Q: What sequence folds into this?
């Protein structure tokens, strides 16, 4: 690699980010004390603030027992409301449209209970062929739940031959041609494998114009790219909080339902005692009276200790702001791309993420020409202290996260790749 290490240090001095707010795992190999952590697309790092905040919530339980529901400093009954406004800001929603609850696939199912309403010839669900497997399983099981054959019902859109990512027109073209048979479009905003950012507003508009409902899995988009779900007229969206939102493994997830669906008495929905309006929750009447907000989709009382880390993380996003993060993300990922260009030029490696920064978030995915991705990431970690993540058989993902990753992390990743993967002799 030609780019000298000193150049990375110089860039870090000029554009330092917020690494000091996070715990960075120690390196398990190589010559640096800290890992070059580029796996935030899989699991984000722990904010330093999280532990104390979590302990404060545990203290309240210790001191107050059941009275903590009302008397804790952050009373448990309305605790989830503390997360609503910052989550709404992050996804470009109104507070009434957003709630933090459950986990991602569970929420996708709850959304589909309401919004996947196959009728007549309009039964299809459109996903990407490279959808995250959980989404694929979820939509197939929804088809079956409605008595439909998943093989006929689920349409998997593939990139054109020889291309790695879907073009917007591949999706909008399908919707223009076949849209009258489509009940639901459910795509990943940023694809987990390729890192491609789809044109959410254009595809949403095309899907809705075709008469379909349009939902988004934003697991890899939230906290990664700016979102404006309300203005984009998205019907619903769901996301997890353990990737770019740094809220810990299996963290509570988020849901968006557009205002136009709120309070609709005709929407089917699974309900529990948390679906009824807060003021009526303890009346314990046989019939619920759901509020005209997305809280009507809540079912159970929420896990307080799981909400603390999400609250702490959302505060960080509020403090730094998505515009500043996106700007740094473009700089960092552009730098990693430049380094990977040097490394991949004469090696059996190919970046499959779109080159246009407007069509991606921070993740760059590298397809390897030979060997196993998992073996390669093992070597990167144990020989160089670089943590990337493998999607077998042949994709290694590198995500410089603008909150805590550095230019030097990117340099180490590229240098490690260069040292690990042999050059092709010309
Ligand atoms: C795009 C996408 N969808 C769904 C999931 C599944 O998430 P969960 O296990 O939280 O339901 C993941 C997990 O990584 C994901 O990346």
A:
């Amino acid at each position: 690699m030609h780019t000298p290490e000193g150049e990375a240090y110089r860039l870090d001095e000029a554009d330092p980010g917020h690494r000091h707010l996070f715990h960075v795992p120690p390196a398990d190999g190589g010559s640096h004390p800290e890992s070059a952590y580029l796996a935030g697309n899989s699991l984000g790092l722990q904010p330093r603030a999280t532990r104390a905040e979590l302990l404060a919530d545990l203290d309240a339980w210790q001191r107050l027992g059941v009275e903590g529901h009302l008397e804790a400093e952050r009373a448990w009954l309305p605790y989830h409301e503390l997360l609503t406004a910052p989550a709404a800001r992050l996804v470009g929603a109104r507070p009434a449209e957003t709630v933090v609850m459950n986990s991602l696939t569970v929420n996708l199912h709850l959304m589909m209970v309401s919004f996947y309403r196959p009728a007549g010839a309009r039964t299809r669900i459109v996903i990407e062929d490279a959808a995250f497997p959980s989404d694929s399983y979820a939509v197939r099981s929804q088809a079956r739940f409605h008595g439909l054959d998943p093989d006929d019902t689920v349409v998997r859109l593939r990139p054109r031959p020889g291309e790695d990512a879907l073009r917007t027109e591949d999706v909008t073209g399908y919707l223009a041609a076949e849209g009258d048979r489509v009940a639901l479009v459910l795509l990943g905003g940023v694809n987990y494998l390729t890192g491609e950012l789809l044109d959410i507003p254009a595809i949403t508009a095309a899907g809705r114009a075709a008469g379909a409902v349009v939902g988004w899995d934003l697991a890899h988009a939230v906290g990664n790219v700016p979102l404006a779900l309300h203005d984009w007229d998205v019907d619903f969206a769901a996301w997890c909080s353990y990737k770019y939102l740094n809220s810990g493994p299996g963290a509570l997830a988020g849901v968006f339902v557009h205002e136009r669906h709120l309070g609709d008495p005709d929407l089917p929905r699974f309900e529990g005692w948390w679906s009824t309006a807060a003021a009526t929750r303890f009346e314990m009447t046989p019939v619920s009276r759901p509020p005209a907000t997305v809280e009507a989709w809540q079912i159970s009382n929420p896990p307080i200790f799981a909400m603390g880390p999400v609250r702490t993380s959302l505060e960080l996003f509020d403090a730094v702001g998505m515009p500043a993060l996106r700007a740094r993300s473009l700089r960092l990922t552009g730098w990693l791309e430049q380094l990977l260009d040097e490394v991949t030029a004469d090696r059996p490696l190919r970046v499959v993420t779109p080159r246009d920064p407007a069509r991606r978030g921070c993740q760059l995915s590298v397809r390897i020409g030979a060997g196993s991705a998992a073996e390669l990431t093992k070597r990167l970690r144990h020989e160089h202290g670089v943590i990337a993540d493998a999607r077998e058989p042949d994709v290694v993902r590198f995500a410089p996260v603008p909150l805590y990753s550095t230019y030097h992390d990117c340099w180490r990743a590229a240098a490690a790749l260069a040292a690990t993967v042999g050059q092709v002799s010309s």
